[in-house]
Amino acid sequence: MSLTNVINLNDGQAAPGKKKIFLFLGNAEVAELLSLTLDSRFHCDVSTFTSAIELVEALKTQRFDLAVLDFSLGEGMVVFEKAHNDKIPMVLYHPEGNSPEVRGPKMKVFRDNALLQGILQGVEQIGAFVKEGASDPTSDYVAVSTPLFLRATPLVTDTFVKLSGSKFLKILHKGDLFTYGDLKKYQAKKISHLYVPKTSIGALQEKLSMEMEILLGGMSREPRAEPTKGTDSVEAFHDLARNLGFTREVQELVKRSMTEVVEEMQKSPSLAGILANMELAKEKYIAAHSQMLAEVSCALAIAMEWGSDMSLKKIAMAALLHDMSLDDHNLCRVKSAAEFDERQGEFTTLQVEEYKSHTKRAAVLIQGMKEVPADVDKIVYQHHELPTGTGFPEAVSHFHIHPLAATLMVAHDLVDWVIDHPGPVDMPAFAEAHRQKYSVGVFKKILKALEALQV
Ligand SMILES: [Fe+2]
Ligand SMILES: [Fe+2]
């Protein structure tokens, strides 16, 4: 691969109205080198993202002129859909096929490993960025982003700073090392670009080209970046679903998490093992307790001999999505609507309303999903009902509560109990504390099955 023309002849001065590119790539080092290269060549603002959530947040306040993204990443499809909806021209890197149908001229897809060349060509062809970094054909020097020299050390050419007009001062010699200390020093002085003689640019390009080869070689040898797992993944699709709705891509993320939980539980349905390893990221209560609940409720469904593949899928998906319409962790930790009476003054009327409507809002969102297993919306809708018929939203008695919703409710109490009682799980104490609450119908059976597990 050649980096010919990677470094553009520009004067290193900030142009007003610089165009903005965002990168969504799995390899941080490649993203950094690409970012510096794009800045040097096109003199544009480059922002790098590794999380679709951060990117969706950024898109609320910022407008980008071009997106460069690795479509094969876990959240690549989500980012693609968002950029497509926002009509942002795109350069897609997609080495393994299955790329989306190319929709319109403002898109370029690359399937081979010529990542850098492909991206640079794509940016040039569809972004019209080349004119932005106005080159200075009269100068004998070429501006290069300062951090890029960290990738080109020991230096292959003398390096200069621009003093004023056409005056340049040599500050580093060919063969010198360029260190992080040097970078910090120049950044402190706000020197964003250093200069090399035009006659030496070929040597610098060759050095950077080798560096990129190494990074890309590493990238192709490494397994593809794994999609985020567990709590992070749940948090990601909760946020995305609230912001974007259940797009096809968000639904894929939900289904992947559900499948992971079900496959894991079918392999090893040990409730004792799950409870012993429960760790809650407190600042991520909503996602963390949903993930735990998916595992615990699957184990409980298996103990009740309701462990068919379809039942496990239903209860796992319901658990993952049950509180998705809430985004306030404190509010989500409220165990029942009656708690608002005991904690008067702690929550606003709006928050109480939000809480009381969260099961319904989640169920409505789930009804908008395609190919969702039957009853998931019902299980979610009923997850705050009570055996005594005093829960919400319908205050139905235990006769009308779906057995998997009942399982989810008992599992939810268990998850909360384990969170509130650190250390070894005292199942007899949990059973005793909940015996009266679960003294009727299917609830009684579920509690009995739980006790029989002898955790
Ligand atoms: Fe919950
Ligand atoms: Fe809830």
Short characterization:
Helices cover 49% and strands 10% of the residues. It has 455 residues and is α/β, with parallel strands linked by helices.
Written overview of the protein:
The chain is of the alpha/beta class. It folds into 2 domains: 20-221, Rossmann fold (3-Layer(aba) Sandwich), CATH 3.40.50.2300; 230-452, Hypothetical protein af1432, CATH 1.10.3210. Helix content is 49%, strand content 10%. The protein contains 18 helices and 9 strands. The protein has helices at residues 28-42, 52-61, 76-85, 115-127, 180-188, 201-221, 230-244, 248-267, 271-276, 285-303, 309-321, 329-332, 339-342, 349-367, 376-381, 403-420, 427-434, 441-452, and strands spanning 20-24, 45-49, 66-70, 90-93, 107-110, 141-145, 159-164, 167-172, 193-197. The strands form 3 sheets. It has a 5-stranded parallel β-sheet with strand order 2-1-3-4-5, sandwiched between helices. Strands 6-9 form a two-stranded antiparallel ribbon. Helix 8 packs across helix 11, helix 10 (285-303) runs antiparallel to helix 11 (309-321) and helix 16 packs across helix 18 (441-452). It is elongated. Residues 1-15, 99-105, 128-135 and 218-228 have low confidence and may be disordered. The site of one fe (ii) ion has 4 residues, from loops. The site of one fe (ii) ion (FE2) has 5 residues, from loops.
